[in-house]
Amino acid sequence: MNWKKYYSGKTLLIATKHQKELVIGPLFQQEFGFQYAVSDRLDTDMLGTFSGEIERKGRPLQVLRQKCEMAMDLHGEDVAIASEGSFGAHPHLLFAPADTELLMFKDRQNGIEIWVQKTSTETNFSGLEIHSTQEIPAFLAQVKFPSHALILKKSKDDLVQMHKGIKDEGLLYSLVDQYLKNSGSCFLETDMRAMNNPTRMGQIEQLTHQLIQKMNSLCPSCSFPGFSIMEVQGGLLCSQCFLPTQSILKEIYRCQKCLHEEEKLYPASKYLEDPMYCDYCNP
Ligand SMILES: [Zn+2]
Ligand SMILES: [Zn+2]
Would the pTM count as exceeding 0.70? Predict the structure, then answer.
């Protein structure tokens, strides 16, 4: 079966209120022949917002799955795509802000779920408590204003008084002036919604290419897309004592449609582990 033709003409729902279809849609159309539609009836904010009015429920992957399923239910289609970003300190680089993006493709008729993840320090994610308008210019330069929008709040945790999507400098200063006059301070932070943040939109575009690449890996048995690593197993032997370590020995590729499996031993072309990582030699 030529599965690329399988998707040709089918409707791909893109679950977003933040114009992510602008980067995801054309790439999927070009690659697989999908018609794409935005699931605008789905209020993805119900599953959590960046600015904190609604706390995010569940782990990001579950949220993504839910977004896809809600969109498919609402529109009566079987193929959907959703993305989810989270921002904060980089997991390995101390003090560097990072943007972690997840993107999921779900085809429920065929039981397929393919997702990719990327963490990048390429983000303007930041926030600052403001006590004087003199603090503003340096912050604006740092967060790439006005090509990237801002959110202004009364205080960091105040979710009642909030102005989102600010791109106008005059408006920004007049709002800040009001806050300073009324309460002496306010909190300025980056608006991370994709349509207000070209840097983030760029990350989503890169991730879309990554997802397409993963889908283009075909099952050797049934030729369905998304033949990819579903599991990794430790057990690489220590070069000194030859006992198994926790380092990766093999990757398991699995087709979600026919469940065909293949193992790839020594994925990093490393056949023995350094005793430094051995629990026995270096406890
Ligand atoms: Zn297969
Ligand atoms: Zn050892």
Answer: yes
